[in-house]
Structure formats: C-alpha cells, structure tokens
Amino acid sequence: MASYLLRLLASILLVSWLVGSLVFFLIHMVPGDPVAVMLGDWASPADEQVLRRQLGLDLPIWQQYWNYLSGILFHGDFGQSLFYQQAVSDLLAQRFPMTLQLALMALMIAVLIAFPLGIIAALRSGHWPDHLSMTVSLIGVSIPNFWLGPMLILLFSIGLAWLPVSGADQPLSWILPAITLGTALAAILARMLRASLLEVLHEDYIRTARAKGLSSKWVYGKHALLNALLPVVTILGLQLGTLLGGAVITEVVFDWPGLGQLLVESIQRRDYPVVQACILVVSIAYITINGLTELVYAWLDPRIRVAQ
Amino acid sequence: MLRKFSYLIIAAWVLLALFGFAIGPSANEVNLNAFLQAPSSQAFLGTDELGRSVWQRLILGAQTSFLVAAGVVFFSSIIGTAIGIYSGYTGGWVDRIVTKIIDVFLAFPGLLLAIALAAVLGPGIENVVLALVVVGWVGYARLARAQTLSLRHREHIMAAKVLAVPQWRIFGRHILPLLLAPLGVEATFGIAGAVISEAGLSFLGLGVQPPDASWGNMIKEGTRYLLVAPHLVLAPGLALMLVVLAVNLIGDEWRDRLDVRQRTRGH
C-alpha cells in the first residue's frame, strides 16, 4: 500500500514536470507578445522595454524556465497574472473549487442517470427497454455539450424560467451546467454497466446463487451488481479526467467561473502564467484521480487485495 | 432501420461536403437588409446576424468538419499504426520507449492537450488538424502495438522471416491486413471524435475562424442571439449531432460484427 502510494506520487511528479515543461516551452513559442497586448498599440518602445524587464520576459528562456520551476517548487508560486495583477495561485484558489464542485455534481448526475439505465438494459437485454435505454445513451454520447448547454438554457431558463441562465451567483445555477457535463458521462457509464452486467450474469456463481434459492434482489443486487461494478469504476476514473477537459467548454457556455473559463480567457489574453498553471493543475488532478481509481479498484476487488 | 438511417446521414454529410465546393464566396456576403430572418420559403433555415444564408453556411461547415475528420483520421491512423507495428515487432528498448511515450500521452486529458496546442499554434483549419493528430495517433499506436505483439510469433510471419522477406514487406503484407478490422473500428470512432473536437475548438474560438464556417463557430455566434433567433444554434447543432450519432452507430455495428463472442451468443 505504502509502496503503491509512493509510486503514484513519483509518477505524478514525473508527469507534472513533463507537462509543465512542455507547456512552458510551447507557450513561449507562441507568436504574439504579451507586453504589446497589455500596453496596446500606442505604447512607446521604452515603456514596453521597462515592462518586459519587470515581468522578467527579457531574460533568456532558460533563465525564465528556471525561475518558473523553482518558484513552483520552493514557494508554490505560479507567478503573477499579467492581466489580473494578482498572484496566479490566488486565482487558482478561487477558481479550482468551482470546477471541482461542477465536476462532482456532474458525476453525481451521471451516476443517477446511468445506473437505472444500465441495469434495466442488462436485465431486459434484447427487449425494448434495452434498445430504448441504449438508444438514449447513444444520443447522450453524440450530443456535444456546447450544443446541449444552449438547448437546456433555451428550455429551462428562457422557456420555462425555472433556472438561472448562467453564472454561479444563484443557488440553483449549478444544475444546468452539471446536467450538460454529466450527460455524456452518464451515457458511457450506462453502456459500460450494461456490458459488464451481461458478462457477469452468465457466470457460474450467478447460476449457483439462483439455484440455492436466493431472491432476485439479492442475486442481482449483491452478486451481480457488485462484480459488474469493477470495470465501471475504472471507466469512471478515466472519465472523470475527461470531465475536467469537458468542463472547459461547459464553463464557457454557462459563464461558470471555474478553471476552464479562466484558461480560455487567458489564452485569448496571452496571459502566459495563468495558462501554464491552469493546464498544470488540471493535468495533476487528472493523473491523481487515475491513480486513486486503482486504489478504489483494489479495495472493491478482494482478489487483488489477496494478491497483494 | 437505424443502420439505414446512419448510412443515409453519412451519405448526406459527404454530399454536402462535396457540394460545398460549388458554393462561391456568396456564402460570406454580408446582407444587413436580411439579418436574423427566421426560416421561410425564401431562405431555407433563415439567415444569420449578418444576413448570410444559414443553409449555405451549414454546407460549408459540413465541408470543414469532413475535411478535418478525414485529415485527422488519415494522418493519425497512418502515423499511429506505423509506430505501433514497428514498436511491437521490434520489441526491446524501442518498444519500452514508445510505450512510455504512449503512457505519458494517455496520462493527459486529450481535449486539454488539443486546446493547449491549438492555442499555441494559433487558429486555422490546418492547425486544428495538427493538434488533433498529435492527440489522436496514440490510440492507433496502442492498438496496433498490442495486436502486433500477439501476431509476432505466428507461423506465417516466422515463415516470411525465414524466407528473408524484407521487414517493410512483412509489416505491409503480413501484419497490416490482419490489423485492418480493429483499426477500422477505431478509425470510425475517431471520425466522431474529430468532428466533435473540431467543433469544440472552433466553439472556444481556437479552431476555424470566421468568416470561414464551422458548425462549432456557428453555434458560438448563434448563442448570442439565442432569444431572437434560436435557429442559428438549432441548425448546426442538429447537423453535428446527427453526423456524430450516425458515425457512432456504424462504429458500434462494426465492432459487434467483429466480436465473435457476441455474435454466437445471439445479441
């Protein structure tokens, strides 16, 4: 267990370093000068020079790279935002919880939709409830969230006036973004759960359980569902990362003040330090979640525990 | 019925994409006298905020998405398959390095990487293709490598090796044909992924830029007029959804056909 956590930590550090360096060098090759963007067209070359020196952008790129790395490592300092005149770490601290909240809510909604769909489809496999729920889930995979979002706004905010259009100020404003983000995940989960349940239902121990007269509830609820959950958990972990990526688009659609929206705005403003930090934070979250998924997997599956 | 429907949609998509070449610059002409018109007999699907025909822009968008999808799938499948076969066949340290690279790519959310790349490369259709190929080759490489590993010690390959058949010929004639079916399924889902990703990047303003039409930037422009002219969002969104749905249905069908276990079980 301890050695597993240690390995996980090492791989998080390695990939974070790779990702961080990659993003740093990629971004510094972007055509487009942040100083020119900040000062506008009418700035004098002297002013630009001064600002460039203040921001450390006149140093050779290796020096900048070293400052960047050592800042994060030794001070947890991601630099200053060029646009907000604020420490990037403060911005992250404001925005990250919003994205996390959205992702968790979306996950909850996905599970709430996927489990009934997947279970019904598996139990009635080959009949109309199966076809119906699988068609619904296929449609769910195929709707891009930047279209579903506006459609939901049109229906629930403008048509029915039940929910707020965008932003995060009102108490119920998380519902539409979470549904938008959760739908695709729900569809994938439902299909996965169906396939996995069908696999399990053909196993010998299910026949044994039925033969010794256990009730359907007990057979399906405990013997089948718990075993079928194993691959689903893996997919859930992998998809949570995709959720973080999808959150970028959903946050832009709903004007949700999370990391994704910050990322897109900062790209347009050429706010390098913020872009770097956003990508780094999302990647670290993604890698960490994937690692933790394996832990949950081991916890769920006694066979793996015994093997350890 | 669903199957016919999906092939029909794909055929319509390809036809629209071809038809896009016949539409001249008139699709980009601004006509402020006719802005934001609802669909009517004069303007099928109505007009947008600059008075351009939504129908014509939809066709140009179909062309964009088709070109991007074709480009992305073509290049990423060739690059990925070549790397995968070579790595799996050669083994040793080459294989270990390639596997590590694949792992690092997979340890990173794909869309985020595409966003970062698109941001760095700047907008434009070629850059969208490039960004999506950089993200997309990994899937093919992993698949081709895994399959090659299991094929490497088959007798027909051994025989070819003994007969001193050159390596590229073994790859092309003796391994690749056996990989085509699973790679085809992967490529089908790859088309759906590329169509959605292109539209997503364009929606974020990182992909195809106006005045060039893409379903993604049409939706983006349309959301600003959601109240007065919902058809601006409805039309490209529906087109996008139908194409992705149809491609996914075909991919599902092909995958089921490949899966012998499922077929004998009678699902």
From TrEMBL, chain A:
Alphabetized UniProt keyword annotations: Cell membrane, Ion transport, Membrane, Nickel, Nickel transport, Transmembrane, Transmembrane helix, Transport
The cellular location(s) given in this protein's UniProt record come to: Cell membrane
InterPro entries on file:
BPD_transp_1_N, MetI-like, MetI-like_sf, Opp2B
- Looking at the record, the residues that make up the ABC transmembrane type-1 domain are 96-293
Q: Which SUPFAM superfamilies match?
A: MetI-like (SSF161098)
Q: Where is the chain membrane-spanning?
A: 102-123, 135-162, 174-193, 224-254, 274-300
State the membrane topology. Answer: Multi-pass membrane protein
A Pfam family matched by this chain, by name? Answer: BPD_transp_1_N
Family designation: Belongs to the binding-protein-dependent transport system permease family. OppBC subfamily.
Query: What name appears for this protein in its UniProt entry?
Result: ABC transporter permease
Which organism's genome codes for this protein?
Answer: Thiomicrorhabdus heinhorstiae
TrEMBL record, chain B:
One matching Pfam family: BPD_transp_1
Provide this UniProt record's keywords sorted from A to Z: Cell membrane, Membrane, Transmembrane, Transmembrane helix, Transport
Give the InterPro entries listed for this entry: BP-dependent_transpt_permease, MetI-like, MetI-like_sf
Q: Where are the transmembrane segments?
A: 66-89, 101-121, 127-144, 178-205, 225-251
Q: What is its main location?
A: membrane
Membrane-topology annotation of the record: Multi-pass membrane protein
Entry superkingdom: Bacteria
Subcellular location per UniProt equals:
Cell membrane
Which part of the chain is the ABC transmembrane type-1 domain?
62-251
Instruction: Spell out the family assignment given in the record's similarity comment.
Output: Belongs to the binding-protein-dependent transport system permease family.
PANTHER family the record matches: D,D-DIPEPTIDE TRANSPORT SYSTEM PERMEASE PROTEIN DDPC-RELATED, OLIGOPEPTIDE TRANSPORT SYSTEM PERMEASE PROTEIN APPC
What protein am I looking at?
ABC transporter permease
The source organism is: Thiomicrorhabdus heinhorstiae
